[in-house]
Amino acid sequence: MIRRLNIYFREMFPLIPRFLLGAIVFGEIYFMVLLNYGIVHFNIGIQEFVGAYTVFAFYMYLRVADDFKDYETDKRLFPNRALPSGKVNKRDLIVACTLAQVIAFILNVLYMNNTAFFLFLYGYGFLMSQWFFQRHKIQPNLPLALVTHNPVQIIINLYIISFTCVKYKLYPFTYITFLVLWTLYFPSLIWEISRKIRAPREETEYVTYSKLFGYEKATRFVMILTLTDIITNIILVWNLNKISVVAFIGIVSWMTIKFLQYIKDPYQYKIVEKVERYTYIQETLMLLTVAIYLMIGKI
């Protein structure tokens, strides 16, 4: 079983990079809330580790649940993936994923201050894994799947924000928490749509947004989301680092050009590749903004 799981995690969910992702997501939201509230003295301990682990474990749950949900489809369209190819079996994944979630549950009960939000997060994740008990309606409807499943990132953000506000006794209902709630949701939404935009001759039986709405409309919609997202970023870093503001304007200008070029000629590159590069740069800038502020203060 260990050998089979090693194959699965290497191909579908690399453990170390995904744990680092969990820590980055947790840390970015945690520090963005605190710094925008003017908190510069931090009490970091086991709770922050538990929070980062919880994000990691929940991402694992979503990955495995998606593989289970899409098993029959993947056997037809992606037969070389770990689960449909038989490199790993469902029992292996159930054992590994259950262990990770049990650890997350125990750690949250023992150490965290927002158990209700933890339960809400996993409750939503469970409903997602069951297609909200409306599989016959949601599975064939790509936009409906998006609006029911993609908001899970908002709930992850809410889990982190709730912990931070409770720990530092912060009033939770402010424009700061509202913006932070959205700041990591937009990138996931943008990526989710972008990966399902293809040039006309690249379409297959796989349902994409470009097949439903045309690649031009789908790309314009993602461009609007990207511009909206960068506005939330700029507001959050405005009082922390003006150089970051300039950098955000620079990268969103580059990404806008790429969107417009793709609309003119969708065969020159896959738009999701540019979106991924943009997102990595964007999130790196957010992390650098936090790190620089912690080291030398406001710029």
From TrEMBL:
Keywords: Membrane, Transmembrane, Transmembrane helix
Lipid bilayer topology: Multi-pass membrane protein
Membrane-traversing stretches: 12-33, 39-62, 142-161, 173-191, 218-237, 243-260, 280-296
Compartments where located: Membrane
UniProt keyword Membrane present: yes
Chief site of localization: membrane
Name recorded for this polypeptide: Dimethylallyltranstransferase
Lineage: Bacteria, Bacillati, Bacillota, Clostridia, Peptostreptococcales
